[in-house]
Amino acid sequence: MPRVHANGIDIAYESFGREGDPAILLVHGLATPLTGWPDSLCDGLVRRGFRVVRFDNRDIGRSTVLSEHGVPNISAMMATLQAGGRPVPPYGLDAMAADIVGLMDALAISRAHVAGASMGGMIAQLVALDHPWRTASLVSIMSTTGRPGLPPAKPDAMRALMTMPKSSSRADRLATALAAVEAISGSLPQTDEELAAYLGRSIDYTAFDPPAGARHMAAIVAARPRHERLKGLAAPTLVIHGSDDPIMLPAHGEDTANSIPGAKLLVVPGMGHDFKEAIMPAWIEAIGDFAAKAEAGC
Fold first, then answer.
1. Are 247 and 274 in contact (CB under 8 A)?
2. How far is Cα of residue 50 from the mean position of the Cα atoms in its chain?
């Protein structure tokens, strides 16, 4: 697995396609390594004429793990936020956005189409806001602006998503992941074999490290809402959201699109907060067409 040193950390990445083609950077979400982006999506976008780079965010996969920051107290951070304060995380989403720009520098990518899912969508929004000259377009998938008052996640889905395995064994990790995906999944079809293979790939790739996931969550909890800043965003923007998403309900996608001038909203029927193979053809078409039009200045 190649790695580059950028923004003070090592970032593991994979690159698909020709280096001279327009780049699409894929930014994943909470405690999810680069293997969470399906190969079919990467290959499909390469066939559309793009170079695709997927990578491990800090503190996950084979990028630098920042264990020296310890385990943040998420409950205390939430209490501080509810009391009107601003909790301080081990690192923020802005630092994770700067990691992406550092990765681009290391790979000699001057501008890129930045596509992020869930937490990755929040990070991608910050790349577009803080580094507009590096952002050819923004694709925000199953994400949010963080605007106060948007509907919360469904309790059962969030509970399943945050449940820890009984042990670090592969079997326990897979069982917990299967239960979580079942809780956050939409109604589009997926075989048990497909899901087990998809989740198993990330489990085999990534060491079991719950504190790192807690540090990601701390960055999300501490992040300032972006809806007001996004009103000034000039980058062409596509928002993809699922009609059945129980973590970021559809109102989050609608708010993201409404907050960004000229943004296009694609609501995928039956899509939840997941990465089923059945969804990938729609994503390939939507992202490929959108990025191609952005390249052409349309």
1. no
2. 19
**What's the one-letter identity of residue 218?**
A
Identify whether 171 is part of a domain: no
Q: For residue 64, which of 219, 215, 221, 220 has the smallest C-alpha distance?
A: 215
CATH at residue 289:
3.40.50.1820
Domain that holds residue 149: 3-155+209-295
pLDDT in tens, the chain (298 residues): 899 999 999 999 999 999 999 999 999 999 999 999 999 999 999 999 999 999 999 999 999 999 999 999 999 999 999 999 999 999 999 999 999 999 999 999 999 999 999 999 999 999 999 999 999 999 999 999 999 999 999 999 999 999 999 999 999 999 999 999 999 999 999 999 999 999 999 999 999 999 999 999 999 999 999 999 999 999 999 999 999 999 999 999 999 999 999 999 999 999 999 999 999 999 999 999 999 999 988 6
**Is 258 inside a domain boundary?**
yes
For the chain, the domain total comes to 1
Is residue 198 included in any domain, yes or no? no
Dihedral sign for Cα atoms in the order 14, 19, 24, 25: positive
Which residue is it, tokens 């907060």? Answer: 273
Q: What is the pTM of this model?
A: 0.97
User: What is the spatial distance between Cα 227 and Cα 208, in angstroms, rounded to a whole number?
Assistant: 34
168 in any annotated domain: no
